[in-house]
Amino acid sequence: MSNVVPLKTPPALAVKDLTTGLRIRGAWHEAVRGVSFEVFPRETLALVGESGCGKSLTAMSIMGLLPAKIGKVLSGSVTIDGREMVGLPERDLEGLRGNLVSMIFQEPMTSLNPVLPVGFQIAETLRRHRGLDGAAARAEVLRLMNRVQIPASARRIDDYPHQFSGGMRQRVMIAMAVACRPKVLLADEPTTALDVTIQAQVLNLIAELQAEDGMAVLFITHNLGVVASIAQRVVVMYGGDVVETAPVDDFFQRPSHPYSAALLKSVPRADRRPDSLEPIPGQVPTLLQMPAGCRFQSRCSQVMDTCAERPRLLPTAGRADHQMRCWLGRPEGGC
Amino acid sequence: MLVVKDLVKTFPVRSGFGFSGPVQTVKALDGISFEVARGEALGLVGESGCGKSTSARTILRLTEPDGGQALIDGTDLFQATGPDLRRLRQRLQIVFQDPYASLNPRRRIGDTLAEPMKVHGIGTAAERPARVRELLAEVGLPTEAVHKYPHEFSGGQRQRIGIARALSVGPELLFLDEPVSALDVSVQAQVLVLLNRLRETRNLASVFISHDLGVVRYFCQRVAVMYLGRIVETAPAEDLLDSPLHPYTQALRAATPTPDPAQKVTMVRLTGDPASPLNPPAGCHFHPRCPHAMERCKVEVPLLKAAAPGRAVACHLMDQA
Predict the structure, then answer these.
(1) Of the candidates B60, B5, B3, the residue with the CA atom closest to the CA atom of residue B176
(2) ipTM above 0.85 for this complex
């Protein structure tokens, strides 16, 4: 569909060879391994995977929000609108977060301050980054609340987070996130805690705001149905590795990596009942138990000897924009 | 085998702090009725707060009902007391959503699984360890699990333990309250396949509570859709998902994402949040969000009426067709 992005446009977000480590029992382990992707203005890239695959850690690395003592970017680069984020001092990061790049989270209640009115919290971003105050800030907050379609915003501006439903709280979070018209929005499972009808509303809202402002959206989710609804391109992660990346239509037609293919076969669908559900055996190994080489080998039905060596991410399915990290279909020891 | 008739459950709600303030009542269940046959899986779907979990808890008398009947092969659970109630409960068990919260962290798995058998006087103390090992094998866990504690297991394994515990007293019907919602996709499929196998091998009936229509389509033969304490539509699973009749079911189906870029989620003009159960709209509870609402919907509660063989819908639109 709209996955034709003009090549001339520079990416709003470019992640290159990002490796993030977590400190476990005194030793650093690679929880994100050499992840690279780009997200262009107006584009939605879905980052898909199960718990522990490194998708949220990737987002935290981009935002510079890794917990200081146990997580750090070991190597690689993150540029947003051409600016390098890795290694920036906290002071500079604070000037960019909420301004150039914003993030929304799964559970809006824990991300909002329960003892401050929502209007005040939305205004905080405006005070910090746009120097708005008093009546000007209040007017802008009202405009933002209308923009994210919170009904009766004038009456609700001084209400507290607990007076809002889950869907409305997520709208408040989105209002804060888009207050400064960021170039990049990171959405980490923003609809996972919501009922499906509310999820659909929030997905629509994000798409509308994106169309108006031209944001690049990195949408992190484990729900392949949501991916099919909103994304133009997909990046699948497993055990900290990008295992497959493709335009969304191509991905669902020809999921190439054994993990992607297995994942699609294990999702019960509302539109038709499969003859059988084929679960992936076992579970994701912990970081301490990760096998050397391909990290999916312990659960893969097509595991071979070569899997002990880590495959590279290379084009597959005869397309340059569809890549996977797997030895299948490659000459042994080749590439 | 299970017949639920006009089940009503209300909760008192105090506004304001502590014990001051006026007492209001919330009708969590407003006269719901359904039947489950032996070996059948009935799906109970709807959004948060619609009363799905409350119906399971009320039927099991984990909270006391305020009206209605729940008959197991003709015996009313709500009239039973003491030993009679215990005997009936042995036939109905429940598996909870959160496998972390529903297992005692200080108790070894073997003891957790033996406890219900002790309570219900099944087997002797000498026989129970062997039965526990059988149960573990049946749900696909290693025998060594007997000596371990819940924290040593992953979410999927803990859910298997929860299932084994429910099976320990040999029930005929399981209430499965969102049993796979907290699990990752690949693990969710493992547990669903296990539950499906148990349904076949033990001829287990179940009431499967879920908000995920895909999971319901895989597991259930029939589905009842709830909205604010009332059942608005019941139908065979395939029919309900392929051609939903109630506008709310249609909206739910349209909003459910499917892994196919050709079918994106749509809103079908369904705006707004579900209304508060504290102050539900008059007439049809769904009318403020319904794209087809008429004057009649605002005043008259639609009754659940047969719409096609095996299907019933509570909507005034059905009278017009």
Answers:
(1) B60
(2) yes
